[in-house]
Task: inverse folding
């Protein structure tokens, strides 16, 4: 059972999401928070696997709450930013804050449910528009960011770099294992090692860093 926490200052939005998710097999809504400032305590109380996080909240916004959660390291739940704001800069800021996904609130219910399941598996969960924003970011011209990213990736072993490049292509752990002829456990071990060396929180941040290192002309 995937345990989900809803963080949104609009009670109607929380009610709608709760009704939708309760109709999905294998998903349980275990708690709610009406502001980002309440999220950390709610996570400690309910131990969710996934947090659906609004961005605009009155006391602490969702990006700050996401950063606070990702500082918990391996104990942090996966965060999916769910917002009405479909902006390139916000997508990048959310990913760098440690979010595993980014969806707009007008996404169809099936897309939100699938995003929760993907995040619980440790996979990125991005709306098409968010994915396009990341592609545009990766396609930017070379600059100091690219050199900095290459220097950071140089700390990885050859196998860890291969795993990182596969993650940047959007491959799942299973697909990476097939490509590199590795067991699923070995893929996870290389991925965990790479994230630890680079001080990153999740595979989306690893994909961004890898894209930064190899910008397209």
Result:
């Amino acid at each position: 059972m995937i345990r989900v926490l809803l963080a949104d200052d609009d009670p109607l939005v929380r009610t709608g999401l709760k009704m939708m998710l309760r109709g999905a097999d294998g998903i349980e809504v275990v708690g709610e928070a009406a502001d980002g400032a309440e999220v950390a305590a709610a996570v400690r109380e309910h131990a969710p696997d996934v947090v659906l996080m609004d961005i605009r909240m009155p006391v602490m916004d969702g990006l700050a709450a996401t950063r606070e959660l990702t500082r918990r390291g391996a104990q942090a739940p996966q965060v999916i930013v769910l917002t009405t704001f479909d902006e390139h800069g916000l997508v990048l800021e959310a990913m760098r804050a440690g979010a595993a996904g980014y969806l707009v609130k007008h996404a169809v219910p099936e897309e939100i449910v699938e995003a929760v399941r993907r995040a619980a598996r440790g996979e990125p969960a991005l709306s098409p528009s968010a994915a396009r924003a990341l592609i545009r970011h990766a396609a930017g011209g070379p600059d100091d960011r690219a050199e900095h990213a290459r220097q950071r990736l140089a700390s990885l072993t050859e196998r860890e770099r291969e795993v990182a490049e596969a993650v940047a292509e959007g491959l799942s752990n299973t697909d990476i294992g097939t490509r590199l002829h590795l067991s699923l456990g070995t893929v996870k071990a290389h991925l965990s090692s790479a994230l630890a060396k680079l001080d990153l929180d999740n595979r989306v941040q690893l994909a961004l860093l890898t894209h930064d290192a190899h910008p397209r002309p």
Remarks:
- The radius of gyration is 17 Å.
- DSSP finds eleven helices and six strands in the chain.
- Strands lie at 2-7, 27-33, 50-53, 78-83, 101-104, 125-126.
- Residues 33 and 100 are 19 Å apart (CA to CA).
